[in-house]
Amino acid sequence: MKHSSIHHFDRIAIMQNPQRIIFSLAFLPFAKLTRAASNLSAVLPLTATGYGTTLTAQINIGGHLYDVLPDTGSADLWVLQKDWKCYNGQANVSGTPVSQDECQYGTTAYTESDTFEPIDDAWLGITYGAGDVFGTLGYESMRLGSISIPRQEFGLMNATTGPADRYSSGLVGLSLPIISQTHPSNVTGLTGFELLTNTLMYDTVLLTLEAQGVEPYFAFALDRIPQDQEIGEGKFGVGSDLRTAWLMSFRRLPQLRHHAACCLQRVPHDASGGDGNDPTRIDGRC
User: Which tens digit of pLDDT belongs to each residue from 110-136?
Assistant: First the structure.
């Protein structure tokens, strides 16, 4: 199976509210993509791990559940492949692997399903601040909460040089494909700089959702947990109808007494965000 090409999009407006991030709330909308969108939305449980320093959300890939790290700073989706190799602390993956325990990933590796389609002309190679990730690519069915994606390109990580968080078995990038890091098969460089170049663009999760009529909005909210508590709860939402879905979900969870909730106002498609007037309202007093 060959790597698919990207659908075109034009101007993008990015708006953030840094003050709310301090209170465990993040929101990043992208406006002016190409297709008409509907009010499809989904809200997923979110787990805060490492005393609130990292997050995991559970998504369904090929009929199996995986705890993945939602990442606003990357674009690719990947999960662990069986028998993946750990090269923690090494400059690249050409040395001698060490125990998987040293890389501190979760224990759930990908289980191949009948809907899996391998991609044979491209591969995964991503450089993060903590290390690099390498693997193969394929297509698979996916569910993000109540939203189904029949065929999503994703990666199977088979080698890494960096540590994880002891909980996640993968990562879902929520950015646009301009920063995706998949590469054609004739590119063989394994260094950080080489992984940032010679990349391919494709329909990442964000664009696939938008193609199905889901507005490309997403948001996070976390319960404020005590300093000595390692694991907490929260919500991860995608889609345009987050105001109703978000608040209803929190009201069903009275234990989240100190949550940081958000009210969202739809970003106009002509919003440039360049004049200092942010058309997105984030309000903790919902």
Answer: 999 999 999 999 999 999 988 999 999
> Would residue 96 count as lying in a domain?
yes
63: tokens are 């009929």
Residues 141 and 115: their CA atoms lie apart, in Å, by 7
Domain that includes residue 182, residue range: 13-251
192 pLDDT above the threshold of 80: no
Q: Pick the more confident residue, 192 or 248.
A: 192
Q: Is the pLDDT of residue 248 over 70?
A: no
The rounded distance, in Å, linking the Cα atoms of 219 and 236 is 6
> How many domains would you assign to the chain?
1
Q: How far apart are the C-alpha atoms of 61 and 154, rounded to whole Å?
A: 9
Distance CA 181, CA 199 (A): 5
Between the two ends of the chain, the Cα-to-Cα distance in Å is 48
Tokens of 117: 């389609």
pTM of the full predicted structure? 0.76
Q: What is the pLDDT of residue 5?
A: 52
7 occurs within a structural domain: no
Q: Quick check: is 211 in a domain?
A: yes
274 lies in a domain? no
Is residue 176 a contact partner of residue 202, using CB atoms and an 8 Å limit?
no
Torsion of CA 256, 258, 262, 263, to 10 degrees: 90
Question: Which CATH number does the domain housing residue 240 bear?
Answer: 2.40.70.10
Structure tokens at 259: 């949550």
Question: In terms of Cα–Cα distance, which of 149, 179, 225, 147 is closest to 71?
Answer: 179
Which stretch of DSSP H or E encloses residue 88?
Answer: none
For residue 178, give the DSSP letter: G
CB 133 within 8 A of CB 123: no
Neighbours of 141 (CB within 10 A): 17
Confidence of residue 243 (pLDDT cuts 50, 70, 90): low
